[in-house]
Specification:
46% strand, 151 residues, Alpha-D-Glucose-1,6-Bisphosphate, Chain A, domain 4, alpha+beta
Length: 151
């Protein structure tokens, strides 16, 4: 079994929640603005609310490795919440939550995964600090890019 990780990311963005939602929900456009996203494509569109939609996303970590996984959307409450499960190099669950007050949107992303790549599993918990730092940088870069995009 891979090493478990639990992350919580928070972004504050001076833009209406719906504008932020529209950008986050367009997964295939992520490579155009999120520096760590190398590729993203839709595998299944799901229903009219995107429930059941599935995406394959390839991430490049700032420390030289890449991960790729499919993410299937299981719950959508636009523009407040989107949740789903990942499978591939990282397996687990993630939830986007968006809150708005006075034109500022708070975005949280809760991510609970285990590593499945053989080399990651072989190292066990040893690279935990490196993986945590990498995740933080990937998400910080996304938050900053999103702020510029919706400004």
């Amino acid at each position: 079994m891979g090493t478990p990780y639990r992350f919580l990311t928070t972004w504050l963005i001076e833009a209406p929640r719906q504008d932020v939602w529209n950008v986050l929900a367009d997964v295939e456009a992520w490579p155009g603005w999120w520096p760590a996203v190398a590729a993203a494509r839709e595998l299944d569109p799901g229903d009219g609310r995107r429930v059941g939609s599935r995406y394959r996303v390839r991430w490049k970590a700032p420390v030289g490795y890449a991960v790729e996984f499919d993410f299937t959307v299981h719950q959508v409450d636009e523009p407040r919440r989107m949740a789903g499960r990942s499978s591939g190099d990282l397996e687990g669950a993630g939830v986007w939550r968006l809150f708005e007050e006075n034109g500022v949107t708070a975005v949280t992303y809760e991510w609970q995964v285990i590593t499945t790549k053989p080399w990651m599993k072989a190292l066990g918990p040893l690279p935990r600090p490196l993986f945590r730092l990498s995740h933080h940088r990937v998400m910080a870069g996304g938050g900053e890019a999103l702020k510029r995009l919706v400004a």
